[in-house]
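Researcher: Next sequence.
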Amino acid sequence: MSCNYAEGLSPYEHKGVLGIPEKFDSIDTFNKKCDLLAQLINQSKHVVVHTGAGISTSAGIPDFRGPNGVWTLEKKGKKPSINVSFADAKPTKTHLILKKLVECDRVHYIVSQNIDGLHLKSGLPRDYLSELHGNMFVDECNLCKRQFVRSAPVETVGKKCSGVPCAAAHVCGRPCRGRLYDGVLDWEHSLPENDLLMAEWHSSIADLSICLGTTLQIIPSGNLPLETVKYGGKLVICNLQPTKHDNKADLVVNYYVDDVLEKIMNILKIDVPTYSEDENPMKKAESSVVDWTIDRYSVLTLEKMFKAKCKGIKKKRVLIKKRNSDMGISGANCVDKAKIIKLEVKEEIDDNKKENGHVNVGNENRQQVKNEQNDLDIVGNGQESIFEIEHNDVDIVNENEQQIKIENEQNDEIKNNIGRNNTVEKNEQNDVDINENG
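Model: Next structure:
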């Protein structure tokens, strides 16, 4: 059960912002946004979906930071009243629809933070899935790093040894002396290399990223959708709670993800599939070895695609998108002018340095501090906490406008100081010239 999984993790205090109230779009707004999302999917050539705990709540698995989430209730000394075991949980409508969209070439990759194994149960092929935080139904060899599907959820978390020998000999014919460990990450563990690389590269080359059922608080997974935006793609967020990246999205849908995707399927005129146990790899794992390792050839192929599209392209830094006041969205027809690229002031100061030879030191330092504070979305040198906590209401557009106003005022102040300094220099030079002529 997810509660048992949470209890198995190491103690960790900073679990993010918990229990933010949920909000729902009106039916009319919901329908309009679904039309826009369907239009974006139709227009996009490479679609990546980022999934969180919110897509599994309809399967009876509680989320973590929702009003009734595991960690929200834990803070109050309570536990969720509904808690289906991982073994009994079945893929939701969202899991099945995503698999169908992959088969129809409408979705090209899925990046998941979930460890519940429901993407695996749905029959989604490994070539289309990154599991950044592990999987309760997957073991990994400590030597050859091959992964194998289990028939039952693992009883431990945190990469603990099961004592079972590696089954590589049954897959590739080469014996391995390694032992199998559970693949579920604890707080201090680094993310699996190939899963993270595939997630980063797919997010970078995507022209559309869709976030489903996640508040995007945990990093680096929560920042991956921004790679799409930084390379010129669009971002859609579907979640009941506000997220820290709502103000960077082209479209924000506040509704149940199952209902959103079902509506999308109706618009796209694609049948909603039903769950079949025959496609569940865990059933096959009861009688045979099922390899769940990311194919190395797939990694190399994607690396070439990533370099071909993104190498040499300067990424946009911190982006904020203005949203339509009627619907709270910028919609599918938003243009680049709606993006405000920060750090422009810093570049302007550098240009003035070249022209004038100096800049007021106090203003320069203040601007440098401000730019460092604004650059919240750039992952640093690996020293950041696993959580990046956002305490401000990311959904308030007025706050963004006020921030822009402050920036403009500071820009004017810098320019005025530069102008005053230049005037003083010129006057001093004139006095010297007059004295010499005299």
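Model: The two ends are 92 Å apart (CA to CA). The first strand starts at residue 47 and ends at 51.
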